[in-house]
Specification:
The protein is mainly alpha-helical and 192 residues long. It contains 7 helices and no strands. It is globular and about 50 Å long.
Length: 192
Amino acid sequence: MTGRTHDAIAFASLITVAAINPPESLNIATATAAVVGNIIGATLPDVDQSTNRLWDFLPGRDYVGKLLKPLFLGHRNLTHSFLGVFIVYHLLGIVLPKVLNPQYVNYEIVYAAMMIGYISHLFGDAITKEGLPLLFPLKLRFGFPPISAFRITTGKWIENIIILPGTAAYIFWFIGNHHGEFVRLLKLISEG
């Protein structure tokens, strides 16, 4: 999947979870941080590529990514596995409470939004021909459907003409059919 498709799927996943399981309280700072965190989470699995957008926010940009690339053991290895999910989950659990001010931002909501983005990225990549090495370091790759010939090629017409617009259509459909839940979320934000 391309970055923009991962972002769209992550956002669709976030709004689905938020509507089905809304937080008890929500303010504008937390809502904003959650949306940004969701997109960052969707980008994190591809941090194993030096061209990842996250490297652009650091001094040295792609150079830092190139230096650290060997730590990730190649693209779609560690960061696209259950072990990668475990490591990211625990690292975020340590880092987020230290960098987000709890007076303004509920780090647990941001944490959940980032993990939703991360996991949605893996679901998106599972439908590509390359599949996922979920049991890394074992070389087995998993995907859906199980036969890779029936999966899509990243960046090709199925992704660009069906999946990305289909995800956008889903977002509009879901919001339209769950507007009551979103009104409640907006009220939570205005009250927070």
